[in-house]
Each structure stands twice: as structure tokens, then as C-alpha cells.
Amino acid sequence: PYIFKSVHHFVEKYNLTDAAFHRFLQEQLLITTQNTISDSPFLTAAMGLAYPSDTYYPVGGMYKPAELLFESFKASGGEVKFKKRVKAINKTKTGYSIRLENGEEFHVKNVISNIPIWNMVEMTDGKIKKYFEEKSKLFNFSWGAFTVNFGIESKEELDSLYYQIHTNEKIPHSDSNSFFVSFSHIDDRQRAPEGSRSVTISLHTNVKNWINLSTEEYNQKKEMTTSTILSHFDINFPQFKNSEKLHLLSGTPKTFQFYTGRSNGFVGGIPHSVSKNLLKMPSNISPFDGLYLVGDTVFPGQGTPAVVLGALNIVNEILN
């Protein structure tokens, strides 16, 4: 039943009226469930609110766990092909053909796809295409992200490496009253040289904020959002106010779309929702023999634990 009732339902039921607590819930759930109090399922919200207590620091950055998976895959006899964009996945009499952008083609019995459902519409045909069109129409929303990355000189110890900064007003061209800050560990030489830290800032934005813009309009919006974020950063971290922001880079949904190929630059996958609950999500086992789905746009949804659980479901299905 907790999948079908929102956090707002229980906030009202138990008369939790503190405005600051409401605001905390709203901003925290936006990070962990990609949704708000009114539509976040109580079950996934409860797990999301406990998320920070299990946050571990990967030395070298977030790509390091993926690098370990990559090495393990190779050690088990797997082959990884980089810079080989998939253009088409089509059903054949014996399985599937996978055609790459460079013209290469592979014929396989089974496919495990980590490609978002919205992108699958573009690279399939027939009944498979219709299936992904229907799912994409039902789950037609995902968040975009605005990010700011830079380095600072710092030898100071911090109380934490992770902070959520709440603001009194929405940051321009975003859909959030907060942003998330991650610092590299002072001893992590893979992220920054001695005496320095890398800083990553991110917040939610609707991808519609960044489409159909002229180059001038795009750059103006990007600069305004960046400067506002940095202003709030300096206020909340006064010890770094006079530190030069080295190698400053900002990213929008357009940036994510360019580098990842994800439709519209969507990040964070499908939001956890009462109105479009877990039981309605695309299954890891598609209706088509030999086509399996993993990632943050299929059951059980977005977030590292959910994506890993979805992958384990597929492993068990195939091995059994």
C-alpha cells in the first residue's frame, strides 16, 4: 500500500505542519526520488530519505566503480567497444541484428539494452518500436540537470564532502530551491593536486528551459544560472569566497545530450511516482524473446540501488 500513497498523504495524516520540514522533504525527495512530496510514493521516499547515510566516497570519482565493472567484465571474457554508437536494433529470425553508426553489424541471439526507452523508439521498428512508443508516451517526463564544476585551492578539513544548499528563491532557469555540492577528498590525488579540491554542483532543471534558443540566449541563460549558483556557494562556504574558481565549466541538458546521447538530455531516469507507479514501469523482461532491459527507465526505476536490482533480476532470469 505504501507504493500507492504519497508522502503528502502521511504528512497530512500525522499533522506535520512545520514549513522548514516540508521544504527539506521537498528538496531531498527531488534528489532521491526525482519527485515532490505530492507524488513521491511513501515507500521509495522512505528509502530515499535514508540514502545519505549509505553514501560512500569513491576515490578517483564516480566513474571508478564503472571502471571496476569494466575490468571485471573484460576479465570474464567480455569485450567492450568504445565510440561505437548503436543506430538500429532489429528482430531477425534467429535473434537480433545490431547496426552501428559506422556501418558495422552484429547478429546476436539475445540483447541486454541499457539504452533509455525514449532512445529505443529511434532505433527499433515494427512491434518493438510500437512498444517503446507506448511506454515513452506514458513515461514522457524526466529531469534535466544543470551542473557547475571547478577546482579550488584548499587545505581545510570539511565537516562533510556532501552538502545540500537551500535557497530562498528558485535559481534562474531551474526547477529547484536547492543545489547539491560535492567536494573531492583532501587526499584524493586522482581528483585534484595536493592542496586543492574539485567541486561538483548540480541541480534540477526542466529540459524545456534549454531548447529552441539562439546561441546568444543559451549563453545568457547559462551564465545567469552559473553566476547565481556561485554567489550562493560563496555565501554558504565563506572560507572559499576569495579562492579562484579554477577550470570552471557549466553544463546543461544540451551538454548531457551531446556527450551521452540520451534523449533530450534527460538524466535521473523515470521519477518515482504514485500516479505512474512501479507496477506500470517497463519490465526488465520485454515482451520480445531475447530482448532484456536494464537502466533507469525500466523497473524498478532510477537510482543506483534500483538499477543494480534491475540488472540482478535479468542475471537471475537468464541463468535460470
Estimate the global geometry from the Cα principal axes. Answer: globular
Class derived from helix and strand content: alpha+beta
Low-confidence stretches: none
Radius of gyration from CA coordinates: 21 Å
Describe how the helices and strands are arranged:
Blueprint: H1 7-13, H2 19-32, H3 42-50, H4 63-75, E1 86-91, E2 96-100, E3 105-108, E4 111-113, H5 117-123, H6 126-138, E5 144-153, E6 162-166, E7 178-183, E8 196-205, H7 215-236, E9 246-251, H8 253-260, E10 291-293, H9 304-319
Helix pairs in contact: 5-6
Question: Can you describe this structure in just a few lines?
Answer:
With 320 residues, this protein is α+β, with helices and mostly antiparallel strands. It is built from nine helices and ten strands. The chain is globular, with a radius of gyration of 21 Å.
Please provide a written account of the structure.
It is a single chain. By secondary structure, this protein is α+β, with helices and mostly antiparallel strands. It has 3 domains: 7-54, no CATH class; 63-140 and 268-319, FAD/NAD(P)-binding domain; 144-265. It has 9 helices and 10 strands. It has helices at 7-13, 19-32, 42-50, 63-75, 117-123, 126-138, 215-236, 253-260, 304-319, and strands at 86-91, 96-100, 105-108, 111-113, 144-153, 162-166, 178-183, 196-205, 246-251, 291-293. The protein has a 5-stranded antiparallel sheet with strand order 6-7-8-5-9, with helices on both faces. The protein has a 3-stranded antiparallel sheet with strand order 1-2-3. Strands 4-10 form a two-stranded parallel ribbon. 29% of the residues are buried.
